[in-house]
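Please go through this chain and its backbone structure tokens and walk me through the local backbone shapes. Keep your notes short.
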Amino acid sequence: MSRSIKKGPAYDAKLLAKVEKMNQTGKKEPIKTWSRACTILPQFVDYTFLVHNGKVFLPVLVTEDMVGHKLGEFSLTRRFNGHGGKGK
């Protein structure tokens, strides 16, 4: 179920403030965040976020195709080791 259009996208205000500050200074440093539920806004494009997956911070470079998705979608929490069998 998606969020109401009337309410707008759910985003982290602190994260948006960090991006706005980096826009003014002109720096492109990675931004560390634990906010996996934050919706990717158009202002986040071309920035790198270090998104926590529960163990480590994974780098996520935001592109235009990612706008509207959540940051957590691009930082997987589980690793697939393959199916078992004799060959393993």
